[in-house]
Amino acid sequence: MDNRPIGFLDSGVGGLTVVRELKRQLPHESVVYIGDSARAPYGPRPAEQIREYTWQLVRFLLTKNVKMIVIACNTATAVVWEEIKEALDIPVLGVVLPGSSAAIKSSQSGKIGVIGTPMTIASNIYEQKIKRLAPQMAVLSLACPRFAPIVESNEIKSSVAKKIVYESMAPLVGKVDTLVLGCTHYPLLRPIIQNVMGPSVKLIDSGAETVRDVSVLLNYFEINRSREVEDKTEEYYTTASVRGFKEIADQWLGEAVTVQHVDLDKELEND
Amino acid sequence: MDNRPIGFLDSGVGGLTVVRELKRQLPHESVVYIGDSARAPYGPRPAEQIREYTWQLVRFLLTKNVKMIVIACNTATAVVWEEIKEALDIPVLGVVLPGSSAAIKSSQSGKIGVIGTPMTIASNIYEQKIKRLAPQMAVLSLACPRFAPIVESNEIKSSVAKKIVYESMAPLVGKVDTLVLGCTHYPLLRPIIQNVMGPSVKLIDSGAETVRDVSVLLNYFEINRSREVEDKTEEYYTTASVRGFKEIADQWLGEAVTVQHVDLDKELEND
């Protein structure tokens, strides 16, 4: 038993899709979330910078005494998950393996699509993981650089969003039976993506899959929190404006949450 | 990636229900199975003896170079899972936590039934685990000492089996909405148990739940086997007669498997 919170990090608001799933599957667990919206999106940045930023978010979460860290960002997972997992003595989960594993189980045709940020797609991490587990699968990858910014600016219901999604995804339509949403921002665009791909295509929400793994690892390491929800805590931090983050968080999580601004350089200077 | 087999141990044939589930969910993984049918059932034995026997099975599996061990026996899990997990440097799974966790998720009424061997029920392990995770749940436990012997002697389709199950389970009928099959032998009696309890009661197969956890831990520790099934291996060992074990194994796994007799004392004497 361990009543400390689970830490989530993301380049911005995308990881909230993972938290929403956590609140559904494990509503009694406490949460600390840090979104680096001031520097989002991570996707187009060089690997070394993504590594440095992600480590800052990890160090911030460690100051909050978390019992587990979920790297709720595909880009950060692609670049630095293994290194962080090796370095820390608490469990560290990424979102790529759970998504890959679910896609393999789902696909009948053996043709899996993956959409993600430019860095996630360039890293080829989904294709690598999927093909290592299931060499017979064909993976069609597509970078969608404009999706995460639409979500960060909360334009997901605009006609521009619809147009961008339709145009971007055209190369995958009709070619796969399973599509991995390889960026935690993308479930916010899910209805549009499902429309483009058609109802028979199974969308894999890598964040939701990750929460199933969180549950198993809490059991395995015996660090569940007691299901007495009264005194559980939820803390949300953003490196950008509280208002923008809160607008999306309230909407996505379906309740009013308290969001605090954090200046990482200041917060970590004595660390 | 790790192409070594997963090791399963049980007091007898019950753990085959876990292997069947593994073959369904993860058909590419290699298997080494040891069933201690010569000394089954473990349920009525004293804890110290169960501890000693289980450690022998673990040592046997280690001689087979397994990458993970599944204690596919609730009784052994109740007595010695934590000790074995601490002692080994490969992942060791028991069947109790996955079953408890699934029961909590399933129950709407908050009333969960658990059936198991006398030792499992006396250990109170399911009630402890369930109530630690979810204190508001009520757990009704029932020892069913006659079930595992029916399965070991392959009398699951006899009218005697039906009579025994109906009589034994009467105290739980109408009292719970979820029932944990807290012994890996019991899924072989599932149709009868479902009939007694009624169609609205959700039966939790702790073994099947455990395989979901196996899959997650293979991912987390990055020890999956490549999904090239050609050269995968399956080895089944029993401490009792090959014929009796094979009859049940073939029937339950739906294919003819090769079963070898093993004399544990001899096998381990130079260990």
What does this structure look like?
With 271 residues, chain A is of the alpha/beta class. Chain A has two domains: 6-94 and 208-268, Rossmann fold (3-Layer(aba) Sandwich), CATH 3.40.50; 97-206, 3-Layer(aba) Sandwich (Rossmann fold), CATH 3.40.50.1860. Chain A has twelve helices and ten strands. In chain A, the strands form two sheets. Chain A has a six-stranded parallel β-sheet, with helices on both faces. In chain A, helix 8 (159-169) packs across helix 9 (190-197). The longest helix of chain A is centred in the first third of the chain and has 17 residues, at 47-63. The two termini of chain A are 28 Å apart. Chain A binds chain B through residues 1, 91, 93, 97-98, 101, 104, 132-136, 212-213, 215-217, 219-220, 222, 224, 226-228, and chain B through 1, 91, 93, 97-98, 101, 104, 132-136, 212-213, 215-217, 219-220, 222, 224, 226-228. Chains A, B: Substrate binds at residues 10-11, 42-43, 74-75, 184-185.
Unreliable segments of 5+ consecutive residues of chain A: none
Oligomer: homodimer
Which pair has the most extensive contact?
Answer: A-B, 24 and 24 residues
- Element pattern of chain A in H and E: EHEHEHEHEHHEHHEHEHEHEH
The whole-angstrom Rg of chain A is: 18 Å
> How many domains of chain A?
2
Helix content of chain A: 40-55%
What does the main sheet of chain A amount to?
Answer: 6 strands, parallel
Second CATH tier, the architecture of the largest domain in chain A? 3-Layer(aba) Sandwich
Strand content of chain A: 15-25%
- The CATH topology name of the largest domain in chain A reads Rossmann fold
Order of strands across the main sheet of chain A: 4-3-1-2-9-10
Task: Assign the structural class of chain A, choosing from mainly alpha, mainly beta, alpha/beta, alpha+beta, or little secondary structure.
Answer: alpha/beta
Number of strands of chain A: 10
Annotation field: number of helices of chain A: 12
CATH class placement of the largest domain in chain A: Alpha Beta
What is the global morphology of chain A?
globular
Mean pLDDT of chain A comes to 92
